[in-house]
Amino acid sequence: MKPKSRVLLATFYLFCCYAFIFVARDVVLFLRDRNLLRLTVAVIGVLALAGLYKTIISQWRVSRKLAVQLVLGIGVFYGCALYYMERPEERFHYIQYGLLSPLIIYTAHGFSKKLSSLSYGLLAVLSMVLGAGDEVIQSFVPSRVFEWKDVFFNVSAAALGMFFYFLVRYFAKKESKKR
Description:
By secondary structure, the chain is mainly alpha-helical. It is built from seven helices and no strands. It has helices spanning 3-20, 24-33, 37-60, 64-83, 88-109, 117-138, 148-178.
């Protein structure tokens, strides 16, 4: 994908994340009233993991076995983290910002295949600032509130997404050396 297309994809994704803030409460209540909330969160999680699997196979060119192991490991970790979250909105945000940091790295790699440690650090900070920005925007929405706990969830999800990116990269390089 060309660099400009990657920027458009990341921008569109972030726009969708921020736009969801204004309707999140209504969507959650609608789904909860119809007993579809848990199913919806599960489907979104499974779709995210399926996308991750496809990306690992196509972008990293690793074996299917390793891709399945990585996706299952990440899925179990995220599942455990989501289980302990009280509100469904927190679960959505954890998935959203967990996907954002790898997407930002993917966008940056469109401009340079080799990034420095400083670049990765700045991308991590950017991901975390965007996650915290979500809560700042919520403080201006009448039906939503700013909570430090949610800032922590968003920032930790972005950091976790970055960690999983490096974990996948590590195992992909390790496997490629074996070939």
